[in-house]
Design brief:
Layout lengths: L2 H9 L15 E11 L4 E11 L2 E13 L11 E6 L5 E6 L4 H13 L13 E5 L11 E3 L7 E5 L3 E5 L2 E2 L5 H8 L9 E11 L8 E12 L5 E2 H14 L13 H21 L3 E3 L1 H21 L7 H12 L5 E3 L11 E4 L2 E4 L10 H4 L6 H16 L8 H25 L9 H22 L5 H11 L1
Antiparallel strand pairs: 1-2, 2-3, 3-5, 3-10, 4-5, 6-11, 7-8, 8-9, 9-12, 11-12, 13-16, 14-15, 16-17
Helix pairs in contact: 4-9, 5-10, 6-7, 6-11, 7-11, 9-10, 9-11, 11-12
Bound molecules: adenosine-5'-diphosphate (ADP) and the ligand O=P(O)(O)O[C@H]1O[C@H](CO)[C@@H](O[C@H]2O[C@H](CO)[C@@H](O)[C@H](O)[C@H]2O)[C@H](O)[C@H]1O.
């Protein structure tokens, strides 16, 4: 390993966005290293290949470089270390996402980029492109958005978010693809531009692997007056828990009106996606395959989290019932990882964000059409999370449990009603499909929490126990 690779092997596992926590790093190699700015400071785009238990994952690192000893105090938290990059002089290397002097350059390059459509255009190892008609303002200072994120998002002024994808899967990122397909919708933040490169695709062209056009980052409108759906829902729940004897509908912070409007917005986005992108219908064989994939996920999760064992039988029964559904199940492109943290409430209504799908799933799988009820199930799970998370480790949990159930039930029903009213299929009439998707999402969450937030593992486990009761 080079000095830089050694520093990265120490730094990357400590980052929130690193998906490989829980397994040691066996190999680390800088796959590609493209300078965007040479001199002092310097800026490079690195693609870092990390091998763990026989599998290679790739991550993007925007590397800032300054002469050793000149890293300003406010960038100390972004430091990766000091190394010699070949010039003979020691160099401070750091996460450039935190340095507005360097991120400003990205905005300039995006503003000057040629107009293109995603998956078209070319030229150079790191390419900047702009959607036709999208003018980008420059000279704005960036700040890194804080939060439990799988990626790193920068807010430029009050105008744009530059979402830089950390774990790179070969291919067009569905967030860019779907956001671009939905451009003009009042329910989506306007997309402007993107950055892409070609990365090694181990799955392509045999064992040698090919190079595949891959999205590195997407620039979109910053919804400045917006509040996160999770924050709004959590406030409503907190309000109810102050007086748990009151029915959620009579409590001052009732969320059902918002949940219903969110359901209608979701249906509108699904209809737009069905108009813009391919649709299909699942055959009985497809349904069996899907049920098989759900079982595979359950087995994987159970091998990692043995507390799932008691529910395997009930879950299998639900997946088998799903496999036997004998009505045509329409499929289309969907959000794929839908929850309250992916929607924001603006003055004008709900806006959906982050069409990336489940970050741990290969992009090729995430881009497959699916039932829109998968998204409905995701949001229903999120109401359950919002109701339960304040009970984790709380001595008031037994006292508050009935209020938690009532809040989740009321908002699940309101969301489903809004979804049907907004032109989506009526979730109430597709219980077998919905139940299987909800279980599958909860099993995904068991794995997600085991890897990222073990103290929240009880939330999906308790939900599975309740669904199975
Ligand atoms: N365009 C935007 N406008 C306003 N807030 C945003 C925007 N994009 C992201 N956010 C905020 O950042 C959070 C995380 O963004 P998201 O795209 O979901 O990233 P990740 O995939 O890393 O979770 C969102 O929950 C939202 O609060
Ligand atoms: O937002 P991401 O694309 O990074 O999604 C991942 O992280 C989410 C947590 O931030 C996770 O969502 C789970 O926790 C939410 C509360 O924090 C809850 O509202 C969701 O229902 C629950 O699934 C998501 O699953 C994961 O992919």
């Amino acid at each position: 390993m080079t000095q830089l690779e050694e520093l990265l092997a120490d730094w990357i596992p400590r980052q929130r966005w690193f998906a490989g926590k829980g397994a040691p790093i066996d190999t680390l190699r800088v796959d590609s290293d493209h300078p965007l700015l040479t001199g002092e400071p310097g800026l490079r785009v690195l693609v870092v290949a990390i091998g763990q238990r026989g599998t290679v994952s790739r991550y993007q690192v925007l590397l800032g470089l300054r002469p050793a000893g000149t890293l300003r105090e406010e960038l100390a938290h972004a430091a990766i270390g000091v190394c010699d990059l070949g010039s003979g002089d020691p160099c401070a290397v750091y996460d450039a996402a935190h340095d507005p002097e360097l991120t400003g350059l990205l905005l300039e390059r995006l503003a000057q980029a040629p107009a293109a459509r995603p998956a078209s255009g070319g030229g150079g190892p790191v390419r900047f492109a702009r959607l036709p008609g999208a003018a980008v303002r420059t000279g704005l200072r960036s700040l890194v958005l804080k939060g439990e994120q799988s990626n790193t998002s920068l807010v430029f002024g009050e105008d744009y978010v530059l979402k830089s994808f950390r774990r790179l899967w070969p291919g067009l990122n569905p967030d860019l693809e779907l956001t671009a397909a939905l451009a003009g919708s009042p329910y989506v933040a306007r997309p402007y531009a993107w950055i892409e490169t070609d990365i090694t695709d181990d799955g392509a062209a045999g064992a040698a692997g090919g190079r595949t056009r891959t999205t590195l980052a997407m620039l979109q409108e910053y919804m400045r007056s917006a509040t996160d759906g999770w924050v709004l829902a959590a406030t409503s729940v907190r309000d109810l828990y102050a007086t748990p004897e009151i029915a959620p509908g009579d409590a001052g912070g009732d969320f059902a009106g918002e949940a219903e409007r969110l359901g209608a917005a979701t249906a509108a986005v699904h209809r737009a996606l069905a108009r813009e992108l391919p649709t299909d219908v699942l055959t009985p064989a497809d349904l069996r395959d899907l049920a098989g994939a759900m079982m595979d996920r359950l087995h994987l999760a159970t091998s990692e989290v043995p507390e799932l064992h008691p529910y395997v039988g009930v879950l299998r029964t639900a997946y088998e019932a799903f496999a036997r559904v004998d009505e045509p199940l329409p499929i289309q492109r969907v959000h794929g990882d839908y929850h309250l943290g992916q929607v924001v409430r603006t003055d004008a209504g709900w806006v959906l964000l982050d069409f990336e799908g489940e970050p741990a799933v290969p992009v090729a799988d995430r881009r497959r059409p699916s039932s829109p009820l998968r998204d409905v199930a995701g949001m229903l799970r999120s109401f359950d999370y919002a109701a339960r998370y304040q009970l984790v480790g709380s001595s008031r949990a037994p006292e508050l449990a009935p209020a938690a159930r009532a809040w989740a039930q009321r908002n699940r029903e309101a969301f489903s009603a809004g979804y049907a009213f907004g032109g989506g299929v009526d979730p109430e009439k597709h219980q077998t499909v919905l139940r299987a998707f909800e279980y599958d999402k909860a099993v995904y969450e068991v794995l997600y929490e085991a890897h990222h937030r073990p103290s929240w593992l009880r939330i999906p486990l308790d939900s599975i126990a309740a669904l199975a009761a």
